[in-house]
Specification:
The protein is α/β, with parallel strands linked by helices. It has 6 helices and 8 strands; from the N terminus they run ααβαββββαββαβα.
Length: 244
């Protein structure tokens, strides 16, 4: 083959390679662009989610009888080890497994292994939240607010009112059970036994429980403690002077 023919052949090969590279880049670019457009379109995302649910249900339906007339919520296991450490229900899962949540049961399906990892009932708590009225009967400002926030964050109680008591002379906290409800947790938390009537002078409440916070349950700042000590010392001195 002449040098001229060889040059033409080499040019043709390079041209085919260049065209092939361009086509590969173009199709990958288009695919990436379509995926980005899909992610930016909520309707398309919903359609993709519904299709994924339908595909999973077909596979799971071959392994177990599923509830009729109900479409489950679908979630993907992202950190199987962490979930298994928190809840025994997730033991045996791997990343990528699917959690199907129905109104009465939950299932974990593993697409990579085509098995059901776990099935269990869902328990919905119908215990109503305790309705609480918190009042500050101590001489420390903001104490009732702090207790109210604690009751919400720790026990998920429904604190409907936070305010001041009739006076700020309560040495002990008063727990008033107006609704005849179970207040054993509060009794333990506050270290007092509940009573059924409000102290004299206290306004009525629509809450099931009224907590009048006394000095015994208030954490005082050092400056406040010093002020209280000074007041007590002054009172003692005045009494001694009067006796003299």
């Amino acid at each position: 083959m002449s040098n001229r023919g060889l040059s033409r052949l080499l040019f043709l090969v390079l041209f085919v390679v260049a065209v092939g590279g361009f086509l590969w880049y173009y199709f990958n670019y288009q695919q990436l662009k379509d995926e980005v457009d899909l992610m930016a379109d909520p309707a398309a995302q919903q359609e993709m989610y519904e299709q994924e649910v339908a595909d999973i249900l077909v596979k799971v339906g071959r392994l177990i009888v599923l509830p009729e007339g109900e479409i489950p919520e679908l979630a993907t296991v992202q950190d199987a080890a962490a979930l298994a450490a928190e809840q025994a229900f997730f033991e045996g899962t791997v990343n990528g497994d699917k959690l199907l949540i129905y109104s009465q049961k939950a299932l974990i399906y593993s697409p990579s292994r085509d098995i059901l990892v776990n099935v269990g009932p869902i328990y919905v708590s119908d215990i109503p939240k305790l309705v609480v009225d918190v009042r500050n009967g101590s001489d420390v400002g903001g104490a009732a607010n702090e207790l109210g926030e604690l009751l919400v964050s720790k026990f998920d109680y429904n604190v409907i009112d936070v305010g001041d008591a009739d006076n700020f002379d309560y040495e002990e906290t008063v727990l008033v059970n107006l609704g005849g409800v179970d207040v054993s947790i509060l009794e333990q938390e506050l270290g007092v036994m509940a009573v059924t009537e409000l102290p004299s002078g206290e306004a009525d409440s629509t809450a099931e429980v009224v907590i009048i916070l006394g000095d015994s349950n208030v954490v005082r700042e050092p400056a406040v403690v010093e002020e209280v000590v000074e007041e007590v010392v002054e009172e003692v001195v005045e009494e001694e002077e009067e006796e003299e």
